[in-house]
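Explain this fold:

***
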Amino acid sequence: MLAIVLGVLIVICGVLFLRMHAFLALFFGALAVAAATTSLSVSQSVLHRSTAAISGIEGNQITLTDIDEGLTKKPGGFYITFDPPGGEAKQEPRLIWVDRFEEEGEATKAYAAQEIPSDVDVTHARLVSQDTYREAQQLSGSSAINRVASALGSTFVKIGILIAMASIIGQCLLASGAAERIVYGIRHAMGERWTALAFVISSFVLAIPVFFDTVFFLMLPLAQAMAQRTGRDYLKYVLSIVVGGTLAHSLVPPTPGPLFVATELNVSIGAMILGGIGVGIWGVIAGYFYMLWANRTWQIPLRIEAQEAIAEEPNDEKDLPGFGFSILPIVIPIILLGLKTVSQTAFPSSSNEIWNTAISFLGDKNIALSIGALLALATLFCKPAMTWVGLSKSVQKALSEGGVVVLITCAGGAFGEMIRQTNIGAVIAESLPSSVGGTGLLVTAFMITAIIRVIQGSATVAMITAIGIVVPVAMQIGLPFHPVYLALAIGCGSKPLPWMNDSGFWVISRMSGFSEKETLKTFTVLLTIMGVVSFLATLVFAILFPLV
């Protein structure tokens, strides 16, 4: 536990007080946790949820109880280990070969190839596969820096390509004018009366591949232009951008936070997208009504300094690409990911091999985002006067920005893995009351994320830190519902109470021309309401539709 406290303090103090880059804070936090963790804890973190207790041995028959879901019940090499609590094992682990497993009534028996000596004491004895045991021994013998480096690489395998492709999509949409076309198209379709709602939808769509601050920079000139034209409702137009954009930022991949959380919980990207939209829409509705109330209550004008903060005017609509062509890089990946999720859920045993192969390939998260990136490159290449050199520069800029995000996210993955290797999941699960179930864990996950968010400011860092604490506990006590709900609870927890230590707070305040007091009572309260309402929706859906 002290190792985790040390690591969390390094991350929070590094970001908050030393103004350290998030990558360095997470990296040094991970290294500190790894160095302070004993080899026994590392070994136990690998073995937990992958063993079975041995209640008796008779000849070559081994009676098993308390079987973890991670134990492989297939013929092969297995170790009998002895791990008495609070002391060292009196017997060395014994390697045996198991021919088969059989269910006999309520008992499960493993049949070894040879008789097991009668001197084996089954007290505190457990059965674990040879591969898992060797993995535990190898990992516990590794140095702290090697374990951190390995976890960094493992996280990159999971999310590196996704973030790179999402960065290319975002940059190309901005450079080609496709992002502006999407905003104009939605606004024209809904009419000027519903401009604020059009901004909500547009900012949500754009925030899927584009970072929220970039979406805000893009759409703020449009909000200011509308406020100048009407002479009122400036607060409504600004908050409408926030309402839509922050939903995608915390709940919908491939934004780094929800992408990382979904990956750590083995939730498919398609399921996370559908779940994020399903619960987030309730937060958006609540936020939308608060936005309307705030706009009626406080008349915040468009100030001169806010107008001067935006250097570029919106492009002329006639110079922008078509709406259908512009939105393809966003829509196509979502459709492909959704098709794979629906296909696996609704038709898990489909006999159409061609369809299964095609949807498995095209619906793969890396392939779907890569197709989106190619379509985004096409929108940029079709821009008048665009050259191969200009295209190359846009890709280079996208990868430069995306590379920093990849580093931060991978460092967060290493930090979470080092926390898991302390075997904290078993410790916390044993200390929790027996009445605490899945719903209690959702509340815990939400609160942990919210507290970390308030302390250090970054929503993404809060999600990355919280998942490292929550996942081991979830694996230990089990979940009575789909893990997507746990991912959504963490995403909702990253919304409440943004204040002066959050860079997004200052982006909204300075670019919009709001004072700190005005930003606190509008932006801060808005995100808090959205986070709480979205979390309540998550709780309700988890109870009514557990999906297991």
